[in-house]
Amino acid sequence: MSKVVSPGKIAASLSEYWSPRIIARVDDACVKVAKVNGVLGWHRHLDEDEMFFVLDGSLHIDLEDGSSVDLAAGDLHVVPKGVRHNPRADNDCLLVLVERESTLHTGDVVNEFTRSLDEQRRPIEDA
Asked: What's this model's pTM, rounded to 2 decimal places?
């Protein structure tokens, strides 16, 4: 049986912004948590959808067609594969992300926030 985890506590304990950490696996998907603040940057995932679930705070996502999505605690949004998007949090925001293990953190862009899969797998101190 798998270990019981608290996504909110783990996300709150993270010291780096925009640096997701894997906390569980469900079949071929990874459940990740992140603490975000500021702007991640425009990117897209060509072959995977990206799911954002806000645990605490709020998240704004600009989309390539000029529209945007505003998420509050408890809200969930899926950015379809291939859609350029730019997430932003004006204050600390805690997220759960569900995506394939093969999903590149910042999609088709490499920037200062890009984290490898090995970095996302780093052990998390008990939260």
From this structure: 0.84
